[in-house]
Specification:
Number of strands: 0
Largest sheet: none
Mean pLDDT: 83
Order of helices and strands: HHHHHHHHH
Amino acid sequence: MASQLGTLAGCLLSLYVVVVLAAFLPPRLMDPGWQVRFANALINNGFLALLGLALVHLAVHLNPSNPHLLRRRDDFAAMAMIAVLGFLFLIPLQGYAVWRGISTANNQQSSQLREVSGRIASLRQEINKSTDIKDLQRRLEGLRVAPMAAADLAQPMPVLRRTMLAKLEQTEIRARDQLKGLQPSRLWQLIQSSIRTALSALVLVVGFAAFTRRRGWNKTLLQSWQERLNRRKNTTRGPFRV
């Protein structure tokens, strides 16, 4: 049973590596979307590595004299130390990636809105300057606007001008509504996802620390943290004791 658990632990860790590697490739380190997806892959599948780590410790507990299992436990414990540091680093990285993604999306929408507003302003100016329908057609062709329909050409110039200006105003209003930044509901979803990811990463840090031992130490990393925290509490409370 101990040998089977050790094999299962190796399979789970290998599966975790495969899943994470699939999310990593192709790497786009400066892309906020890629950063978020990669961090989510690390965290959402972290239970595989954590379960594998727990199983190899259980295998050693069942058969403590097996040198192969002991060596595998030590190797996994060393990798778990890297996982602790990695998940701690993911917490601020995830927050930065989400903030950068929101900032990039808002900047892109602002750029699109400026482009649309500039285009509408040019059209409005040419419509106001036009003296008749032929002049208007010539000006619109210069701006690479699609030809007007026959029904529009049949209208008197003052009526056509008012109609086109009204349509431009409606188009500008719609553009401002659509390109005014992320919707509050979408923004709240991103914030919730970021908080959930950060808390999940923190839970994984505690989980891996419970199975990680420093070289030459009999205590786990989590036990070391707890003892240090208790010493600080005792030092803080010491002067107030009776």
